[in-house]
Structure formats: structure tokens, C-alpha cells
Amino acid sequence: xxxxxxxxxxxxxxxxxxxxxxxxxxxxxxxxxxxxxxxxxxxxxxxxxxxxxxxxxxxxxxxxxxxxxxxxxxxxxxxxxxxxxxxxxxxxx
Length: 93
What we know:
Radius of gyration: 33 Å
Number of strands: 0
Keywords: Membrane, Transmembrane, Transmembrane helix
Organism: Propithecus coquereli
Protein name: SLP adaptor and CSK interacting membrane protein
Oligomer: single chain
Largest sheet: none
Number of helices: 4
Structural class: mainly alpha
Region (Disordered): 68-93
GO cellular component, one term: tetraspanin-enriched microdomain
């Protein structure tokens, strides 16, 4: 007895055309959303609504944030060189 399952012709058609179907679906969804957005914008503009650009909210900074706002992390003193890598591991064992 042969236990292999044969693919139906409909399934093979979906597999061979998967990327084309996916591309067409993406295009249809994009066009649909674009038309909805276009109609909503046109409807708002016909009603005479003015769309103002929102101004960013001024955030209240704490004194500490204001104090360190323009400070760069540059130390005037040169730091000493790091110890060799194997130094600590040999002391521990």
C-alpha cells in the first residue's frame, strides 16, 4: 500500500502562486486603506475643519536634569591603564 498523500490540484495552485497572491492582497489592502483615508480627509476638509499642527507639550524638567543637561562626560584627568587580563584569574585559582 502506498501511504504517500497526493497534493490536490487546488493546493498545488496555491503553493505555486503564493507570492503573487500575497503581493495582490497587500496591494488591495493598501489601496483600500488609502481610499478610506482619502475620503475621511476630503470629508473633514469639506466641513471646513482646520487641522492645526499639535505643539509639543513642555515637559517640566527637574533641577537635576537641568543641571546636567549640557554636561559632557569628559574627565580632565587621564585614567590609569587597565591591569592585564590574566592577572586576576591566576590569583583566584
